[in-house]
Amino acid sequence: GEHAAEIRYRLGEAHHTRGDCTGALAAIGEPKGTDSWSLWARFIVLQCQADAARAAWRAGEPDGGGHYLTSLQAAREIAAAATDVKDDALVGLAAKACLLAGLLAEASPEARPDDVVEFTRDFERRFPNSADLAGDAIALRVVARARLGETAEARADIDRLSSLEGDRVARRQQLRHVGQELMAEVERGDPTRRHAVLSVAERVYTLLVDGADGDGASTTTDLAVLGQIALSLGHLDGARRTYARLLELDPDSLEAQRGMALTVEAEGKEQGALGHWRDLTERTAPGDTLWYEATIHVARMEEQLGQPERACETLRKATATAG
Q: How far is it, in rounded angstroms, from Cα 133 to Cα 92?
């Protein structure tokens, strides 16, 4: 009868509330309609299938045991049906479904950036009444677009994320999370897209550093990462400015001193680089990794400055000191 869809939904919701997805899916069946009760039932299907996909991934099934694709299909059906209605609750449901699908795609052990972008594209325009979800959706989209090599779009999304209204602290946390995800992608992702991902990460950390308000520990961490990015991209002026600012905040930062030494060396200023590396050998304990690195660079600079005998002596002394 006319209340059948509501009854199936409410029975399924009762099971789902107790954590019983098997009972929920059995009660709901396969909702076919586009009425509100059928769409809410599809959302339970989406949630349960997403949980099952994650369980399958944990069990070593890269395709999610078929549950992943079922989840995405439920999200697509909810979004499509809610597009043509004026019911704010259903549009809000579609926003939640799209975000959940995007999060699921991001969590997949196999890279699925196309799926992430599909469900988060134009999120803030499509769902203007779901501003509380927009930040998470845009954050997902930035990382996915960086992985796809869509650098310009990713950088534009970073600016959109930064300019969203609301809790400024929460926004900075989202930006920092995006930055951390991008740096992780640099380490584990496609080497051919490393430059593109770094350029997107540079924009994130520039915003974090420029928008810092006395957040000391976070500021120094962000500066260190920004300096590393600038140096990797060959943006030597930016790297020098960043490491100089970091040294102003933390004069004892070995990371900043190392970054400045590498920057000056990359600029071709052997004498200046030699001074920085020598300082590091004096400020680090013999045998430490950084001490070894600095010592090798000292010898290299001495050789490049036409002092091969001094370079050999530097290495001999280092061997005796550390040995």
A: 10
